[in-house]
Amino acid sequence: MVMGIKGMVCAKGIWDESIPGIKFDKDGVSNYAKIQLKLMEDFPRGEEGRRKWLEIVRDAKVKGKNKKYDGIVGVSGGTDSSYLLHLLKTVYDLRILAVNLDNGWNSEIAVRNIQKMTKILDIDLETYVIDYEEIKDLFRCYMFASLPWIDAPSDIAIQNVLYLIADRLNVKYIFVGNDFRSEGKQPTEWTYSDMKQLHHLHKVYGTKRLKTYPKMSILKFIYLSYFKNIKMIYPYNYLEYSKKEAQKFLKENYGWEYYDEHHHENLFTKFAIGYWQYKKFGIDKRKITYSAQILSNQITKEEALKIISKEPYNTSEINKDLEYILNKLDLTKDDFDKIWDKPNKTFRDYPSYYHYFEKFYDYLWPLLSKIIQVKPKVFYEFEERRKL
């Protein structure tokens, strides 16, 4: 028995039976592997990918004419967004604005990385700061609700901020450094949230009025995406990209610093993934991440199994970090223990838009495809799950 693995393991990765909705065919290939393979088929790299990407670059420059920027880029100080800044500025000569969301939890390493990259590349930086009392209140709401993905308020805020700033600047392109080949598709049960759920949880558990938290309704999203033609683009869908090579390049050329694991550039995200989900819910998101990297030949299965045999959070750091985190959240150890002992919930235990998606899926994507340019990964998951 391999440490960290539960039950049957996918023949093509390390997806196992701890993953919600997983099914295996007669050859031992999981539906999650098939999701990944379908994504790779729909977004080929090589010559075809480069051709599609260059079309995007040309269009961004045309639509950016007589404007200050051709596009904006969300930056976190992590590998993907840092390397994306390098590519967009030095290789493709795009005039870009870097946008960072400050939720009060960015690590010192992340802040230094952002400052180094933007300064050396001479890229303007805009930091959107959420009043910390508001974001703290929202994080506590998700913890009180006993949901697995307590960093959802950050994810929602980042997307909203990018669209709102693009609208303000009349910019038509938002570039995002997400890479499904190195990140994979996380199960909906582990990460789903939306504004409807956020508003509900805040109404039930919240105490602070949300004045600075960026809010965007579905109607606003449709208006900005369809009528104002603002596109969210994922360059790594098209371009050859290796996270390991990117990290080496960034270190050598920009003095960029690594932060140990995926998304550990933000202290709350590190806690949410490496401790809250892993310890309270038995969720190990690394199984998805490294499975995707196995399929894209970035890591071997043996290497991935060795990594997940160890806990994601450094045990020598956790007591110190947990004390700091609870203090920053205004929670005593007794408060936290009571939260921890509450029964685990899923997103289905609270109101959200997801049930509309399930009910009207067959009609939804034909309509949404006219509004957004890239098919959401959750749609790939839903389609694959319905086959088995």
Description:
Helix content is 54%, strand content 6%. Helix 1 crosses helix 19 and helix 12 packs across helix 15. The longest helix is centred in the N-terminal third of the chain and has 18 residues, at 46-63. By secondary structure, it is mostly helical. 36% of the residues are buried. The protein has a five-stranded parallel beta sheet with strand order 3-2-1-4-5, sandwiched between helices.
Count of distinct structural domains: 1
Look up the CATH topology.
Rossmann fold
Distance between the termini: 27 Å
Indicate the percent of residues in helices.
40-55%
Structural class, please?
A: mainly alpha
At CATH's second level, what is the architecture? Answer: 3-Layer(aba) Sandwich
Rg calc: 20 Å
Number of helices: 19
Choose one word for the global shape: globular
Return the average pLDDT rounded to an integer. 93
| Main sheet attributes: strand count, strand direction, barrel closure | 5 strands, parallel
Return the CATH class.
Alpha Beta
Order of helices and strands: HHEHEHEHHEHHHHEHHHHHHHHH
- Total strand segments: 5
- Proportion of strand residues: 5-15%
Q: Order of strands side by side in the largest beta sheet?
A: 3-2-1-4-5
Poorly predicted sequence stretches spanning 5 or more consecutive residues: none
Q: What's the name of the CATH homologous superfamily?
A: HUPs
